[in-house]
Design brief:
Blueprint (H helix, E strand, L loop, with lengths): L11 E4 L5 H11 L3 E6 L18 E2 L2 E2 L2 H4 L4 E4 L5 H12 L3 E4 L5 H4 L4 H7 L4 E6 L14 H7 L20 H24 L4 E5 H6 L5 H8 L16 E5 L5 E5 L3 H10 L3 H4 L7 H6 L1 H12 L4 H10 L4 E3 L3 H6 L1 H5 L3 E5 L5 E5 L23 H7 L4 H9 L4
Parallel strand pairs: 1-2, 1-6, 2-5, 6-7, 7-8
Antiparallel strand pairs: 3-4, 9-10, 10-11, 12-13
Length: 403
């Protein structure tokens, strides 16, 4: 495993969090060349320990396949942060780190003597990225908050689904992912400030606020007019036509014909020039009033044609469209393949595993998939030795269950 690549080569990241939001941010730094040291709880009497995500969903040789995406390229060090010896290890690691990532409940690091005020004493330039359900301040700061709660409180769940049914969730941890991306953006801003001043600072990311930040114009619409955006199924409120339609062979296709000139080309393609040339439908405001009529016309055309013909016709007319992909469709797609978004890593037992490629793509300092997820405590000796611990001291820490 090497870290001498990418725009973040030479950057040191200490990852204290677990599960999704914190570690997902750590993956971005690892993908672009930073040395990411992931601190995990030591194994218990049953031999299980570390980040719980090691054991989530589909397993191979006892380890989650998700783990090999979320923690690729990182170094695993086991530390019991509840013990003074473990806390001292973390302080020494933080003293050499540019960035520390954590997603514990607010106050946890402070209880262990590892809060920002403690870390800055050993490293004035440290950047502490903190991800929590409700942020480090406010009346809800101490409550447990998962991504599912954030998606609900942030407003995303309310507008997801069909109007005659309860709100639905995406079958992914989207709230955690959104919060993680906000955290990465915040850290990069702080690095820019640090380069000018030498000062570190805290990035305080609340899951619910990160979700709320994606809610487009819902707040000003409500604030000025009292309008509450509701669930509308597969279409997009006030943007017409933009919906999902079903072909004769049962394929679901998204069609976005909401640009004025695009709308005319779409209507010509489906044989409805009468709608395309109707002055009342020349702009989005007019089309929004007749959304059901337009959706019915598009569906009537889709319903009598095979998906392949529909996609070909729409592409020729330069109308944005796309089949709704399953993961099987993604793996087989030549666009994904051409841009190296389906990559393969080799696990320690020789198994080839498909993993997502690196996003975003940089022209001069690209990132790369830097191996798979580490074994629990795989880098204990390597990392602790760099902090000055001898083999005897490491053995003593292990005996005390501090690592």
């Amino acid at each position: 495993m090497t870290t001498s690549f990418g725009p973040l080569a030479g950057l040191k990241v200490l990852e204290l969090g677990q599960l999704i939001a914190g570690p997902f941010a750590g993956k971005f730094f690892s993908d672009f060349g930073a040395e990411v040291i992931k601190v995990e709880p030591p194994a218990d009497e049953k031999g299980q320990g570390g980040d719980p995500i090691r054991y989530w969903r589909t397993l191979h040789e006892g380890t989650s396949l998700w783990w090999h995406v979320q923690s690729r390229g990182k170094k695993s060090v086991t530390v019991n942060m509840r013990l003074p010896e473990g806390q001292e290890i973390v302080r020494k690691l933080a003293a050499e780190a540019d960035i520390v990532i954590e997603n514990f409940r607010p106050g946890t690091l402070e209880k262990w003597g590892l809060g920002y005020d403690d870390l800055v004493k050993v490293n004035k330039g440290v950047i502490l990225m903190r991800v929590s359900g409700f942020g480090q301040t406010g009346p809800m700061r101490d409550l447990a908050g998962f991504g599912t709660v954030a998606e609900s409180m942030g407003g995303m769940r309310y507008v997801s689904g069909f109007p005659d049914r309860p709100p639905v969730r995406m079958n992914l941890s989207i709230g955690d992912g959104i919060a993680s991306l906000h955290g990465v953006i915040g850290v990069l801003m702080c690095l820019h400030h640090k380069n000018k001043t030498g000062e570190g600072q805290v990035v305080d990311v609340a899951l619910y606020e990160s979700v709320f930040n994606m809610m487009e114009s819902t707040l000003p619409e409500y604030g000025l007019t009292g309008q509450v955006r509701e669930r509308t199924g597969s279409n997009l409120t006030g943007i017409v036509p933009s919906n999902t339609y079903t072909s004769k062979d049962g394929t679901h296709i998204v069609i976005g014909g909401n640009g004025d000139s695009i709308f005319k080309r779409l209507m010509t393609t489906i044989g409805r020039d009468d709608l395309g040339t109707d002055p009342a439908l020349a702009d989005n405001a007019g089309r929004a009033k007749r959304a059901t009529e337009l959706d019915d016309a598009i569906q009537a055309w889709c319903g009598v044609h095979e998906a392949a013909l529909i996609l070909k016709a729409l592409n020729e007319a330069q109308v944005p469209n796309g089949k709704i992909y399953s993961i099987a469709d993604i793996v087989a797609d030549p666009q994904y393949q051409a841009r190296e978004m389906i990559q393969t890593v080799t696990l320690k037992d020789g198994t080839a595993l498909k993993v997502p490629g690196v996003v975003p793509r940089l022209s001069k300092t690209p990132g790369k998939v830097n191996g798979s997820g580490p074994d629990l405590g795989e880098h204990n000796r390597e990392v602790l030795a760099t902090l000055g611990y001898t083999a005897e001291q490491i053995a003593a820490l292990k005996a005390k269950k501090a690592i």
